[in-house]
Amino acid sequence: MRPSSVAIIGASDDPVRIGGRPLAYMLSQGFRGALMPVNPNRPTVQGVPAFARVADLPQAPDAAIVAIPGEAAVQAVADLGARGCGAAIVFTAGFAETGEAGAAMQARLLEAARPHGLRLLGPNCLGMFNATLGYYPIFSASFENGWPRTALPRMGGVGIASQSGAYGSHLFAAARDRGIATPVLVTTGNEADIGLADIIGWMAGSDEVQVIAAYAEGIQNGPRFVAALEAARRAGKPVVMMKVGRSALGMAAAQSHTASIAGDDRVMDAVLAEFGVHRARTTEELLDVCYVAQRGIFPARNTLGVVTVSGGAGVLMSDAAESVGLPMPPMPEAAQARLKRIVPFSSPLNPLDCTAQATNDMSVIGTFAESMMVDGGYASVIAFFTQWGASPSIAPRLRTELKAVLDAHPDRIFVLSILAPLDRVREWEADGFLCMEDPSRAVIALAAMGRFGESFARDAEAAAALPPIPLPDTSPNEADAKRILEAAGIPMVPEAACASVEDAVAAAEAIGYPVVAKILSPDILHKSEMGGVLLGLGHADAVRAGFATLMQRARAHAPEARIDGVLVAKQVTGGVEIALGVVRDPVFGPMAMVGLGGVFIEIFKDVAFRRCPVDAGQAEAMIRSLRGFPLLDGARGKPKADVAALAQALVALSRFAAAAGPRLASAEINPLLVLPAGQGAFAADAVIEVA
Amino acid sequence: MRPSSVAIIGASDDPVRIGGRPLAYMLSQGFRGALMPVNPNRPTVQGVPAFARVADLPQAPDAAIVAIPGEAAVQAVADLGARGCGAAIVFTAGFAETGEAGAAMQARLLEAARPHGLRLLGPNCLGMFNATLGYYPIFSASFENGWPRTALPRMGGVGIASQSGAYGSHLFAAARDRGIATPVLVTTGNEADIGLADIIGWMAGSDEVQVIAAYAEGIQNGPRFVAALEAARRAGKPVVMMKVGRSALGMAAAQSHTASIAGDDRVMDAVLAEFGVHRARTTEELLDVCYVAQRGIFPARNTLGVVTVSGGAGVLMSDAAESVGLPMPPMPEAAQARLKRIVPFSSPLNPLDCTAQATNDMSVIGTFAESMMVDGGYASVIAFFTQWGASPSIAPRLRTELKAVLDAHPDRIFVLSILAPLDRVREWEADGFLCMEDPSRAVIALAAMGRFGESFARDAEAAAALPPIPLPDTSPNEADAKRILEAAGIPMVPEAACASVEDAVAAAEAIGYPVVAKILSPDILHKSEMGGVLLGLGHADAVRAGFATLMQRARAHAPEARIDGVLVAKQVTGGVEIALGVVRDPVFGPMAMVGLGGVFIEIFKDVAFRRCPVDAGQAEAMIRSLRGFPLLDGARGKPKADVAALAQALVALSRFAAAAGPRLASAEINPLLVLPAGQGAFAADAVIEVA
Fold it and tell me: N or C: which end of chain B has fewer CB within 10 A?
């Protein structure tokens, strides 16, 4: 990332060829380290003394660019490793992205590097830059239209980490044209060694980068990725991410584009939310959030105040704020009364509408904006002044009024929403204003600043050190699964496994009627589909008849199945049925899941995920995030359910999953019967699948 | 809208004063009709001969501008009416927007105009323009930065109709800066007479306007509004609307801003959807849709093809297309095979990724794009070429390749997504390309073109001529309500109203057990809350006991209530419970409503609305739009429900509501029990509220 010497394998004298661009760029941008072109055919390349072979290099290069084809690239990496090079950036394509033969060659590339501790970026990557050093090991043509800026006054630099070269390069160019400083760009290509997570992790600790913009198609290494996100969070650096493959269509497109693993998109959402990452849906939104994040103000308690010359635009911003959950509390009443004396007929709640009166008396604008800051105390402020920002007759006075407010309150995020040509926007920006034409986009970006602030304010969580829990060799039957989960701290509905009719009757008498009877077999996972669950057995004869029925159905349904008997359980009524589960994500490991049972999960997809283990607060937040939460919270005149007990069961299940290790394929409790507050929550069924 | 003579009451010699701007604008823009300033203090105004009083005008003006304060404005309108003026544009503020006294003055303004047939725009409006005539009765300062364009080659003009002056003016300026032609702008202010609906209706029939952009805070006159939308639809002119007040916060802000009626936002959504209006959520989205709609291509069967130099951006667009329901079918296999021979390792499904190979051989781009048109047959195409669109070394060749494809297929909507400075964008646009930097925004705009096409392709619906249905004088009890709805064609669960215990037993025997018994009273609307519904009465004794229980509970709950007896009904099981209803919207009249009963409506707000009456196709579309529709469609192994019978019940209820007239406050059937396909749907409860 910060080399003092760079070798270029396959350096070209032609400054627009792939092997020529990096050298031309570094020469043009004043890279101060040693530049060592390697080219067997020329004594100099672009005027720089060249070396015929890697072995001839006068010193071990900190970094090398590999811009030669196929097997020669593999050999070059081996030679660089032997020469003591630290890292190689491999432009060469034709590796894993092209199929099996390419994947084998990529494996050889990695083998050539590993023994020497040589790190690889790529292959099949566009390269990277660290503009603070003039270091440009990259063959993008983006610089035809301008170089990156390394820093802006009062603004933090945005680092771009992208799995796609073309998209990363597009992002850099769009950010540059927008006036955003992008000191560092890294594209990771095939990620044979260095992945997106490593780059985010580096940026979290770097001085060059204060805001991290990332583009991902698929995450290869979950633990490294979450460690990088946590490092960024602890460093107070916001991460703004474009993770494509959100839709079924997009996932198919992503898979045809690269060989990435595209997991369940809701798992990705859960992981990003856990670390306070802003997931952008469009490139524009990504840039908007980066643009505002440059300012480096992340209020843990965000509120929005709006001052406007259009009441209509004020309503529009109120709609936008509500849709993203950004509070717009009203101005204090005393301040309202004062402002109303200045502009009669206005209703200075929030938004504050300066009305047409401002054209006659521009001091109204300063008075209103200052009152928003001082009386309203809003962390975020939008000033909507449409074309006034570019009006020769109005803009100078508008600037005087607003600049005084901006300068007096450097701790607030102040966005000016104006309609103006780019050169006028640049003038406002030079004064220290953040400028965004569309006020709805400004609202979304400001809301993101608050969520970053909330995330940064959270304490680092101590890694839970859970003693490992041994699992049986194969998937246990229901009774055994319940015993395992009960030991893990999940209360069970009273029940007994009964091998005989007599045992079943005795158990029912002990538990109390009515009871439920279920077939007990490790080979029958979905009992209700085969009629293997009988409800409401009210007396001993019913239990006897039920036992016989279940045996008969099991034999008819699955003649080969091992039958362990029948489970007799208390029939609990009056609870809300909840489904709890753990699924193992291939990238992020066990994910805890909670949802209201039945149609709510299947049809409405109303379910919350989070990585295991979760603590009580996180579990409750998951539960409260369900759209159907009112059903647990006293909706329709029912008593409030025991959410604390539900949360505790979720915590216990998630800790069990974290401690059980990778052999746990899945675990499910469905239903968990959540009784009214204070009466607990009890698992009525449980399945554990062991890999 | 197209006057040949204009009087200006309160004309000022100062061209930047409110009374001076319109004259200055019309002089500068070459208005060809007669301009007649009225000013008692000067012989000429801005060089134009002036008249001291309205009575002195040498001819009856087609239109007049009123730019004088308060009561003088009222007098001017009376004078103009007497002089035979056709319409007055009243800038004057201080009317209904300021409170009761102002509202009274506004009523006098209207009274002054009405007897003469003088139409009013405003008061408290910014004015309007029709740039095709140089007609500028408006005091906006927007023209400091440029005049509207009346037309662009191959593009239809966008008319702007706005209830807000400041926002309408902002929209004009933003459209102008975007390169959109806006021949007409009308702001309606307080809408004492002419409202937004009138303007939309005029635009629907005008030659100047091919696309209608509208901003609304509240609709005053529902019938006029829907007539205008239908006129636009029949004329094949898309309407793009910003209706603010979507959120609770926004509604509060809208109410403090104007005196508009802000109804249930879902009703507004339903009405706009009925007429194919695109409801934009942001100003930018509104402009995006107008920008693409200018091209005038509205495919009734829209599909999207994407050609790209970034696989990542391709995935992003696929995600966006799925989220807005725009299909991206794959290329035909033969075409895929052919393209794969040209670019190995590409997967030319759709998106088509030209890959880096295009830099070496630009003809790949033309070949790919042409194949999308010819082989893929996509109605909409996005070509994503990021900074290539501004690259001196690449752009000229890119233009050659793409221009040939564009010119060969003028029937397709071709959007170029490039990153380029405004002057370069203007060059591409001059070539006939639509240019949008953000590809996700392009996808949204293109999806809108297809929905316009679908809407335009629908036949005009004959206004249903329903014979009026008389309603009782007061709200009927449940039994009477059911009889009324049964007569309207809604099947009822078999039942009988029983005044005595003996009647109840006899009825139960006739209907067959089990039965349901419900208290029968016009004064008890919510029976279940007071224990007024008993289920599963299986024999005569249970009916007797139930009758006594219900009488006792009714007397305890509501001692004053009139008790008509008990309703005995067949207990239908195995149906899906649906809620049907009609609510009277203050603006749009009776709205039919359907949702899955219980929590689905209350917690998940899963409900569909449409204006009454609806036909069978519309009813089924409403039902299918429910998120919970799978519950009617065989989810979870249940039989498919009788959706046709449900739709028929919805049709019957909506026709009843349309025929019953404004005294029907509401009607509700909850539940309607929808049995498996072929077995019908039966109402189990009904409420009719008469105003």
Answer: C
| Residue at B221: amino acid letter | N
Contacts of residue B145 in chain A, CB cutoff 8 Å?
387, 390-391
Interface test with B, best of A387, A576, A626 (most B CBs within 10 A): A387
Tell if the CB–CB gap between A328 and B249 is shorter than 8 Å: yes
| Digit-coded pLDDT (tens) for B261-316 | 335 788 899 999 999 999 999 999 999 999 999 999 999 999 999 999 888 899 99
Q: What is the pLDDT of residues A413-463, one digit of tens each?
A: 999 999 999 999 999 999 999 999 999 999 999 999 999 999 999 987 665
> Are residues A307 and A422 in contact, defined by beta-carbon separation less than 8 angstroms?
no
In a 13 Å sphere around the CA of A261, the CA atoms on its Cβ side amount to 13
Scanning every residue of chain B, which has its alpha carbon at the shortest distance from the alpha carbon of A287? Answer: B438
Neighbours of B232 (CB within 10 A): 26
Of the CA atoms within 13 Å of residue B331, those in its CB half-sphere come to: 27
Distance from CA of B91 to the nearest CA of A (A): 12
Q: Does position A337 have pLDDT exceeding 90, yes or no?
A: yes
Q: Are the C-beta atoms of residues B532 and B558 closer than 8 Å to each other?
A: no
Query: How close does chain A come to B392, measured CA to CA in Å?
Result: 8
User: pLDDT tier at B615 (50, 70, 90 boundaries)?
Assistant: very high
pLDDT of A247: 63
Q: How far apart are CA B602 and CA A372, in angstroms?
A: 38
Q: Do B257 and A391 touch (CB under 8 A)?
A: no
Verify whether the Cβ–Cβ distance B320 to A282 is below 8 Å. Answer: yes
Q: Is the pLDDT of residue B601 over 70?
A: yes
* ipTM of the complex, rounded to two decimals: 0.86
Token digits for B205?
A: 């029939």
Single pTM value for the model: 0.89
| A555 vs B544: CA distance, rounded Å | 47
Residue of B nearest to A175 (CA): B419
Cβ contact A319–B250 (<8 Å): yes
Rounded Cα distance between B189 and B199, Å, is: 12
Query: Which residues lie closer than 8 Å to A16 by C-beta, 6 or more apart?
Result: A24, B393
The whole-angstrom distance between A248's CA and the closest CA on chain B is 8
* CA of B556 vs chain A CAs: smallest distance (Å): 20
Give tens-digit pLDDT for B407-419: 999 999 999 999 9
Q: Is residue B243 a contact partner of residue A311, using CB atoms and an 8 Å limit?
A: no
Mean pLDDT of A480-489: 94
Provide the mean pLDDT of chain B. 92
Residue the block writes with tokens 């394998």? A9
Distance from CA of A251 to the nearest CA of B (A): 7
Between CA A244 and CA A128 the distance in angstroms is: 21
Please name the helix (run of DSSP H) or strand (run of DSSP E) that holds residue A420, with its range, or none: none
Mutate to test the interface with B, among A315, A360, A530, A596 (most CBs of B within 10 A): A315
- Range with top average pLDDT, A234-248, B275-289, B456-470: B275-289
Compare all CA atoms of chain B with the CA of A630 and give the residue at the minimum distance: B603
